C-alpha cells in the first residue's frame, strides 16, 4: 500500500491547524518544516488574551480584520519564542500568503512555500519571492484523498 507523501502529510497538518482558526472571514493554517520534521504550526486568530472574532465579530479596517494575526506569522513567532531557526525551512500554508506574511517568510530564511489555494495572490509578493529565489508551489489538497488513505488501512 502506498504511504501518504510528505507534501500531503504536511499540507494535511496545515488544514488541521486551520480548524483552530478564530477568525470568521477565512480559516488558515501554517506548518513550518525542517528536515521533514514539524518545527512549528499556527492558525489565524486573535492576540493571546484578546476576544475572538468568532465571539464578538471581526474588527474591520480597510476591508481587513485587524484583530487577527495570520497563521504564517503565528508559526514564525512560535519559532522565535522557542529559539528555533527557520533558516532553510519549508512552510505549508492552506492559502497563498499575504504580502506582509510573504515578507516575513523571506526575512525568516524560509526557502520553500507550498500552499493549497490561491487567495488574493499579490503581484509584489510574487515578485519578491522570485527575486529571493524562494520556491513557491501550489499543492492542491483534497481531504477526501486523506480519508481514502485512512479507510484503506
From TrEMBL:
Transmembrane region(s): none
Q: Which residues bind Zn(2+)?
A: 70, 98, 101
Looking up Pfam families in the UniProt record yields: dCMP_cyt_deam_1 (PF00383)
The protein's required cofactors: Zn(2+)
What GO molecular function annotations does the UniProt record carry, in alphabetical order?
Answer: dCMP deaminase activity; zinc ion binding
Residues in the active site?
A: 72
Superkingdom, according to UniProt?
A: Bacteria
Keywords of this entry = Hydrolase, Metal-binding, Zinc
Its BP terms in the Gene Ontology are: pyrimidine nucleotide metabolic process
CMP/dCMP-type deaminase domain boundaries:
5-136
Q: For this UniProt entry, what's an example GO CC term?
A: cytoplasm
State the family named in the UniProt similarity comment for this chain.
Belongs to the cytidine and deoxycytidylate deaminase family.
List, alphabetically, the PANTHER family matched.
DEOXYCYTIDYLATE DEAMINASE (PTHR11086:SF18), DEOXYCYTIDYLATE DEAMINASE-RELATED (PTHR11086)
The identity of this protein, by name, is: ComE operon protein 2
Q: Which organism is it from?
A: Staphylococcus carnosus (strain TM300)
